[in-house]
Design brief:
The protein is α+β, with helices and mostly antiparallel strands. The chain is built from nine helices and 20 strands. The chain is globular, with a radius of gyration of 21 Å. Bound molecules: flavin-adenine dinucleotide.
């Protein structure tokens, strides 16, 4: 038996069906991780000493090059455990490999609240803290308690509290100082059992509830409303390859926003702390003329300019070049630099 057979390491594995953009990509080495012990064993065998691996979840927020230069750890650690229940709230610890939307559905079906606005976000539980996932007025940090991660640098496990994660808008310490260093193995969340706080003020959600004459919604109504809105707006990756919003919504100075308003009537902007305004990237991309545009195998989605789609057969390089053209065009027209939300992996 050779080393690869003993450790379960596979060679030359296609990642084409493991990323929602559907990009053709090959991993030189690939390991499916189903337990924390496996990480310790791999470290003892020196697997992490040469090249730091890339940690893969559901592949819904990545842009892959056609051949990766590093090994891949596919996170599949299962499990869900109720670790505390004080009658009002529960604490639930979930394995990094669990599917995020299935967790949301499980919670709502069991009357647990706080997570319902985050329905239908693709991907795994372990990836959720990496960019502090958010949607329809709720961000992960609102229900997050802690996470456990394996530190590839010190070869030891570590627990991170909420403040240690340094969450921000689609951001955390794991996208900055600790980028690529921590392998999240489980996440602990706090969910409400009763007296749920309903978040229904996000404009698209409010509009849907009003249109459907839903008054005083509970967590099930919010969950279903979010699913219906998302299904009507966003392309399903199984129909057309995409990674959701390709860029973050830029946050600019109030002064710059005021100047832009003089030239661009109706430019939307939302207060984002004193002196700062968040501008929808989709609006900027659309006004720059990119909505529904196609170049070769790549394009923006016909009804949502912020989503870059793979019309079939696109390479990571093509998608990257297309995204750079959008960045250049938006920068020239508005003086705003768009930052990718999607992680670019080589
Ligand atoms: C149609 C669509 C809609 C989307 N809508 C939203 C939305 O509304 N809000 C939102 O916030 N996002 C959204 N996304 C983006 C995406 O779903 C989230 O970022 C999700 O959390 C990514 O999970 P994943 O498991 O697919 O991560 P991957 O794409 O596999 O990885 C993303 C990053 O996290 C790292 N990572 C993954 N797992 C781990 C782990 N266990 N430990 C350490 N690092 C890890 C990877 O190395 C990579 O850097 C959308 C994507 C799509 C395709």
């Amino acid at each position: 038996m050779n080393q690869s057979q003993k450790t379960g390491i596979q060679k030359e594995v296609s990642l084409t069906h493991l990323n929602t953009l559907g990009l053709h990509s090959v991993a030189p080495l690939f390991m499916n991780i189903t337990s924390e012990t496996q990480l310790i064993e791999l470290n003892e065998k020196g697997f992490f000493s040469e090249k730091r691996p890339f940690v893969l979840g559901g592949g819904s927020n990545i842009l892959l090059s056609s051949r990766l230069s590093v090994p891949v750890l596919k996170m599949s650690i299962p499990g869900m455990e109720m670790i505390d229940d004080d009658g009002k709230n529960v604490q639930i610890q979930v394995g990094a490999g669990e599917n995020w939307h299935e967790l949301v559905s499980f919670a709502v079906q069991n009357g647990l609240g706080g997570i319902e606005n985050l329905a239908l976000i693709p991907g795994t539980v372990g990836a959720a803290p990496i960019q502090n996932i958010g949607a329809y007025g709720v961000e992960l940090e609102g229900l997050f308690l802690s996470l456990k991660a394996y530190d590839l640098k010190s070869s030891s496990f570590r627990t991170f509290s909420k403040s240690e994660c340094q969450f921000g808008y689609r951001d955390s310490i794991f996208k900055r100082e600790l980028k690529g260093q921590m392998v999240v193995t489980s996440v602990t969340l706090r969910l409400s059992k009763k007296d749920h706080i309903i978040h229904d003020s996000y404009s698209a959600l409010r509009y849907y509830l009003t249109q459907n004459k839903i008054q005083n919604p509970g967590i099930e109504e919010i969950y279903q409303a979010v699913i219906n809105i998302r299904q009507s707006k966003l392309p399903n990756p199984s129909d057309i390859g995409n990674a959701g919003s390709f860029f973050k919504n830029p946050v600019i100075k109030q002064k710059q926003y005021n100047e832009l308003k003089d030239n661009w009537e109706g430019i939307p902007g939302y207060p984002n702390g004193p002196g700062w305004v968040k501008v929808p990237a989709a609006w900027l991309i659309e006004k720059a003329g990119w909505k529904g545009l196609r170049s070769g195998n790549v394009g923006t989605y016909k009804t949502q300019a912020l989503v870059i789609v793979n019309h079939g057969g696109a390479t990571g390089q093509e998608v990257l070049e297309f995204s750079k053209k959008i960045q250049k065009s938006v920068s020239e027209q508005f003086g705003i630099d768009l930052i990718p939300e999607v992680n670019i992996v080589h």
